[in-house]
Amino acid sequence: MTKPITRKDTSLPAEQSQQDIYARVTAKILADLEQGNLSWRKPWNSEQMTGQVMRPLRWNHIPYTGINTLILWNAANDQGFTSPYWMTFKQATDMKASVRKGEKGTQIVYADKFTKEEEDANGDLKSSQIPFLKSYTVFNAAQIEGLSDGFYKVPEPVVIHQQARDPKLEQFFAQTKADIYTGTKACYTQSTDRIQMPPFESFETAMRFYAILAHEICHWTKPPHRLNRDFGKKQYGDEGYSKEELVAELGACFLAADLGFEPQPEEHHAAYIQSWLHVLKDDKRFIFQAASHAQKAVEYIHALQSPRP
């Protein structure tokens, strides 16, 4: 009797698979940092995306968040994609479209938790939430044929006057109710819970003012009465300080993409690159954690906006 043909299970153990995902994404970002490039800044440096940077979007127009924002921005830059839309093979097929033969997808990640029950020393059942991570593949609209025209349309650039204050951005930051005052430098001081900003007129452009304010407003979300984000900072320049700076950097980039302006110029962060290299080499998971903290900071800031009528 002929034995039935069975497919060999080539899947990796869950823990090993998750480690591979962390290692792959972190390795790419480390390689960029070692060359002096910030992966999350690449879209703003790309000619094909100048003035059109926004969050990567799912097929249903919902933005990707956290680490997937970084992964897809990086992929779009590397491959010259201008469409913000990404979808799985099945999602494209469901829309009567097809991925072009030979196109390679981009791996992104899905994070969730499952409940595990175990007996404790007394024989009682205790449940705990176990986080897990898995990857799946998406394709940019530029790799797909047969989608409706809207998926291929290049987003219109957002135009902000170079010197005048922008009323919409002024209102956005004012509605956070953060205590922002004019001083000699840009910083957030947790002990007083205040943000200091240099005079608006001292900035070369309005966009630079809002970019730096976005960075500081992300720091403003960290105290215990807001998001309670603490990396154990003891002094200027230590590991905890570097981690918080990376979260604020990513948060400012996310916020800039949401609001339509370029984040703080990259040259301002040259001094941080070595410290970020050190942090990411020591902890392959931290870029995922940093992106998650940055996403929570941006969501917190957006939630403070008054609902539209």
UniProtKB/TrEMBL annotation:
| Annotated ranges, domain Polyvalent protein metallopeptidase | 168-293
Gene Ontology molecular function terms on file: single-stranded DNA binding
All copies of the N-terminal domain together span 19-139
Q: Which protein are we looking at? A: DUF1738 domain-containing protein
Xref: Pfam families: ArdcN, MPTase-PolyVal
In terms of domain of life, where is this protein from? Bacteria
Q: Which organism is it from?
A: Spirosoma foliorum
